[in-house]
Design a protein that fits this description.
single chain; about 400 residues; mainly beta; four-stranded antiparallel beta sheet; globular
Length: about 400
């Protein structure tokens, strides 16, 4: 296991902890939202701050970056939209009566969840609320979005005639222990998913397979059929709250307050790997090129071989919890409650991992070839034995 060395760059512009870090779809910019009530825009090309968004009256809880616009939500109950070139505030979305927890941008919609027990839908281009989703008994912590076209067959779509105008659905997870699925057009609750006995902290959606995964303070991850609402599987091996989830190639990675990450094979529910070494809760995780990167409450980021579970590197330097990580062009970005954004070079780890994967594929290829030759030999021997018996 290699040591961390030092970060390529440490950005100290914020005057308060960084609560979230968002990467633009084109990978050219990063957005940080902070306890100091501001957001900052960073270039991934030169790692310089190119924008400072000021206007919120309290701390920023979450942020989201598109290629042309930035979005921030705050404890001041508002959401703001910003021009990434000029830094100008383009819109203020007002309506929530408590702290905004999460925002999600999909198509022309902006979705938000709040401590006021509601989720809301806004027009991205106008400061106008389109819909309010009311029904949770406690705060809405996490959001997901999909279209019924992605999951429903034609005959099933016909059953939802009243929703034909818009087939978009919003999924909300709450501290009331439930997950709800809503029709965006009407605000009507389509499904309430019951089973968790603790707050729902994270959601991840696999629309093509009609599956939704939810992580909770009840120490479990549950899989749901998002069409029928049926609970499919319960993953029970964690000994603490499930804080974050990542889904890659039918493998589900879960980060927990029990100081571990676990990898599960979705199709069987089997736990196939546990990643240890954290000295505090696992707050965030990201899969990249066969490597699992984690951020923890122990102020360290780590890199694990995703297949073997071997710890490959520890990134030390932060003073407090790492709240979010992003990866772009073989650089790791870590945002912490200590107010810094740190940038780490991960080319060496990625290169070693690529060589290892290539070697493994080569060995598997030779094994497969040997197996084919062995089967061919056995078949020939079998034919000879059969021939001798006939004679």
């Amino acid at each position: 296991m290699g040591n961390s060395g030092s970060a390529v760059k440490v950005c100290t512009d914020h005057q308060g902890g960084i609560n979230w870090l968002s990467l633009s779809p084109d990978g050219q910019r990063l957005l940080t939202g902070s306890e100091d009530g501001t957001a900052r825009l960073w270039s991934t090309a030169d790692s310089q701050c190119h924008g400072h968004f000021q206007g919120h009256e309290s701390y920023i809880t979450f942020c989201h970056l598109e290629n042309e616009a930035a979005f921030t939500c705050s404890a001041d109950h508002t959401i703001r939209k910003w021009d990434v070139v000029t830094g100008q505030c383009l819109a203020i979305y007002r309506g929530h009566t408590s702290i905004g927890n999460r925002i999600l941008v999909a198509k022309d919609y902006l979705f938000s969840g709040s401590y006021d027990r509601t989720a809301r839908c806004w027009s991205v281009d106008k400061e106008k609320q389109i819909q309010e989703f009311r029904g949770h008994r406690n705060c809405v912590l996490t959001l997901a979005h999909y279209s019924s076209r992605d999951v429903l067959e034609e005959e099933e779509e016909e059953e939802e005639e009243e929703e034909k105008v818009s087939r978009d659905l919003l999924v909300t997870g709450s501290t009331d222990c439930t997950v709800k699925v809503w029709w965006v057009s009407s605000g009507r609750c389509y499904q309430t998913l019951l089973g968790h006995t603790g707050a729902v902290l994270c959601l991840i959606l696999d629309a093509p397979n009609r599956e939704l995964f939810s992580g909770s303070t009840d120490y479990t991850i549950r899989t749901w059929n998002i069409v029928t609402g049926e609970q499919l599987k319960v993953f029970k091996e964690h000994q603490g709250s499930v804080i974050c989830l990542e889904l890659v190639n039918r493998h589900l990675y879960s980060g927990s307050a029990d100081r571990t990450v676990k990898c599960w094979f979705v199709d069987t529910g089997e736990r196939i790997q546990t990643y240890k070494a954290h000295k505090h809760s696992v707050s965030t995780l990201k899969y990249h090129a066969g490597i699992l990167f984690t951020g923890s409450g122990d102020a360290c980021a780590r890199a694990f071989n995703s297949r073997s579970g071997v710890l490959q590197k520890i990134f030390r330097g932060h003073k407090f919890i790492i709240n979010c990580i992003q990866i772009h062009n073989e650089l790791l970005y870590t945002a912490s409650h200590d107010g810094t954004l740190r940038i780490w070079d991960i080319r060496g780890i990625c290169k070693r991992n690529k060589r290892r994967l290539k070697k493994e594929r080569s060995v598997q290829g030779r094994s497969s070839q040997k197996g084919s030759l062995s089967r061919l030999f056995n078949n020939k021997v079998g034919c000879m034995v059969q021939q001798e018996n006939r004679e």
